[in-house]
Specification:
This protein has 261 residues and is an alpha/beta fold. It contains 10 helices and 5 strands. The protein has a 5-stranded parallel β-sheet with strand order 2-3-4-1-5, with helices on both faces. α8 runs parallel beside α9 and α9 packs parallel to α10.
Length: 261
């Protein structure tokens, strides 16, 4: 590797590592040290690559931890049962891995019976965001209700909404497992509105309730209608069906007690 080739490669690496020692500084330093051999330049370049890899690994690990997505046995696109899908559905699921919907400002809404893979796919999207150094946050609907309730009591709704709307991908799981009163419904609308009005950012939502049933989950009709408009406008809607995967790894033991003679 020549010095010219090294310096051209060094500049973006230095910026990635936020080094104040830029290409001109390195060139001046190398002159004071004497001409560096191509082997020495290769070694320095490899060292910078290792630093960048370590930095990225740390950033991704931190993002996954902050996302609240369980990582003991992470749910990813790799272990999603794609082989059970027809070719068209498989292609559509894999397209989500590119995260194209984030830049397109499109939400992803998954509806279907319990145990059909909605949460798995939602977490897979969240993990993919983190792997690409994008902020994701996973929360169940009943947890969101609790946060709304507490923020209303403490008069900190603005702070909560600002915090939840900062993520590139907000994943709301299990819509339909709890009921929102009027104030909570209004906060839910404000949250959806803030995220949908951002330049980038999307909501990934899972529910076992079809859209007509949502009226039974929220109290404020006008706010609900506005929320649905925001969520479903240009949304990617996925309808899940089929048998439940829950309990597929269970071990069944039958105990047949015989009466002692």
């Amino acid at each position: 590797m020549t010095m010219e080739e090294f310096l051209a490669d060094y500049e973006p690496k230095a910026k990635e590592l936020r080094l104040s020692f830029l290409a001109d500084d390195f060139k001046e330093w190398s002159v004071r040290c004497g001409d560096l051999t191509p082997e020495a330049l290769d070694s320095i370049g490899s060292y910078l690559d290792a630093m960048i890899e370590k930095k990225n690994e740390t950033a991704i690990r931190t993002l996954k931890k902050l996302s609240r997505i369980p990582q003991a046995n992470p749910l990813t696109f790799e272990n999603f049962e794609l082989e059970l899908l027809n070719p068209t559905a498989r292609k559509q699921v894999l397209a989500l891995r590119s995260l194209y919907f984030l830049n397109a400002k499109r939400n992803v809404i998954m509806i279907g019976p319990t145990g059909t893979g909605k949460t798995h796919l939602a977490m897979a999207i969240g993990n993919e965001c983190c792997s690409n150094k994008l902020k994701a946050y996973f929360i169940k609907m009943d947890e969101l209700k609790e946060k709304f309730h507490d923020s209303l009591i403490l008069e900190k709704t603005g702070r909560l909404l600002n915090g939840l709307s900062k993520y590139s991908c907000l994943i709301i799981d299990e819509v339909g497992y709890c009921h929102f009163n009027k104030e909570e419904t209004l906060l839910f609308f404000q949250l959806v509105d803030r995220i949908c009005m951002k330049d980038t950012g999307s909501i990934v939502l899972t529910s076992n309730k079809d859209l007509p049933e949502w009226q039974n989950l929220f109290e404020e009709d006008d706010a609900l209608e506005c929320t649905i408009d925001r969520l479903w406008d240009k949304a990617i809607c996925m309808q899940f069906s089929g048998r439940s995967h829950r309990g597929s790894d269970r071990e069944q033991i039958e105990l047949n007690f015989q009466k002692l003679r």
